[in-house]
Amino acid sequence: MAINPGVIARTGLELLGETGLDGLTMRLVADRLGVRAPTLYWHVKNKQHLLDAMAAVMFTDAIEGLRPPADAAAWPDWVATRARTLRKVLLRYRDGARVFAGTNLTGPDLPAAMELTLRVLLDAGFTLPDAARGFAAVLHYTVGHTIEEQARLGAGYEHNPYDPKALAEAFRPDLYPLAARAATEVFLGPDPDTDFDAGLDYILTGMAAKAGL
Domain limits of the chain? Predict the structure, then answer.
């Protein structure tokens, strides 16, 4: 197999299921590819560059087949679909959202997707500042929510502190009934898709109100 940044990045993503982000090393990636670690440095300079390449792969997968909506008024559904698709891609990999957060995406995919997104929102009636800030809020919410969602799996703990029984004990419903209900029924409820969509709807509603749409 020819070694290139894409192959290295996808190998890193495969290893996440075994090691998590904190356990992922350049040496482990090299071992999985059957090469010596210095070989990787011809393609990725260090672990941060590896994470950048892994994030780029996830981003490319998330925008595959991206097209503008047929009707500019359909922008809320279009933006929501983009957010759901990115979340779905990040959830494929253990710590996928943590890998994605704060990485430097290079290449043409990011500016091309951003240009299309801004054009969709401007065609719907947004100003450029409102379009840029609004979609940034959607993106940051999507990544942040998914980080929390993956953390709830408790992979780094011997006993998952997000287990419903553990949460009930931690929040003391006898003393803090509202906080306990919110933690177990809303924030960490049984349906993460509904939880995600509810927060997304708040942002999209706010964007529309800000733009007077």
Answer: 65-152+188-211
